[in-house]
Design goal:
Layout lengths: L5 E5 L5 H9 L4 E6 L12 E5 L13 E7 L8 H11 E10 L6 E2 L10 H16 L10 H9 L10 E4 L6 H29 L4 H16 L5 E4 L1
Parallel strand pairs: 1-2, 1-4, 2-3, 4-5
Antiparallel strand pairs: 6-8, 7-8
Helix pairs in contact: 2-4, 3-6, 5-6
Length: 232
């Protein structure tokens, strides 16, 4: 989309995407919403943040945005079809929704993962079970169900792009190596926040058992012989 005038960032988090977009498009009015007020107060003049819950009916009027952006929100919504319907409602005719997300599975194409007892396999199984129990799936990408939900909301001409991002510094290509190290870093930094509540509160694990899985995941993430990647 060229020169969007009104932009909405769902689940803006730290607000970094919204601020970068506002800097890149100074004529656009960028609004980021999130449940947590963790965004900085020093922002570009065309960027603002609001506390709002995108899992509930959106407060914005019909046909009010040129572009809606959603990124890395798996496990956040009990009703994804409703989110897509709201995005479709608030977009102007011809407006764009971009949704980028990552599944809970780390893949391997060359057999370098253990044949049995892979921490990555256990991790995916645990989050599948947790998603079913709390009613907020972590398997948004499976079977392209998100495309079906977009179509049901009214979209036409949906474009899909699969992106493989390595986990760790194993790739020989320097650019992919850098991406993999960044991916590894964000995984390591997010493990406790991603999993502790899910394992202990949702699934009822003992903290010691949960910490043992996290330790196995940390070891797997640092193991350069594991050639894993995520799908976005």
């Amino acid at each position: 989309m060229e020169n969007p005038k009104k932009v909405l960032d769902i689940g803006t988090g730290t607000g970094i995407w919204a601020m970068d977009f506002a800097d890149a498009y100074p004529d656009a009015e960028v609004t980021g919403i999130d449940l947590s007020p963790i965004q900085p107060t020093w922002t570009p003049p065309n960027c603002k943040f609001e506390i709002d819950d995108a899992a509930k009916p959106w407060t914005f009027p019909d046909n009010s945005f040129d572009y809606v952006h959603i990124r890395y929100m798996i496990g956040c919504f009990p009703d994804w079809p409703a989110v897509y319907r709201e995005a479709y409602r608030v977009l102007k005719p011809g407006g764009w929704l971009e949704h980028m997300d990552c599944g809970d599975t780390v893949f391997c194409d060359d057999g370098t993962f253990p044949a049995v007892d892979s921490p990555y396999t256990e991790w995916a199984a645990v989050f599948d079970a947790a998603g079913k129990k709390i009613g907020q799936s972590f398997q948004l990408l499976n079977d392209d169900q998100y495309i079906k939900w977009m179509e049901e909301a009214g979209w036409k001409g949906i474009q899909k792009k699969d992106i493989k991002t390595p986990v760790g510094g194993w790739p020989a290509d320097s650019r992919l190596k850098e991406i993999g190290l960044c991916n590894q870093l964000q995984f390591l930094g997010a493990l406790d926040g991603l999993a502790t509540y899910i394992l202990v509160n949702a699934l009822g694990w003992e903290p010691a058992v949960a910490n043992a899985l996290l330790d196995r995941m940390r070891a797997a993430l640092r193991n350069r012989s594991y050639h894993g990647y995520c799908r976005w």
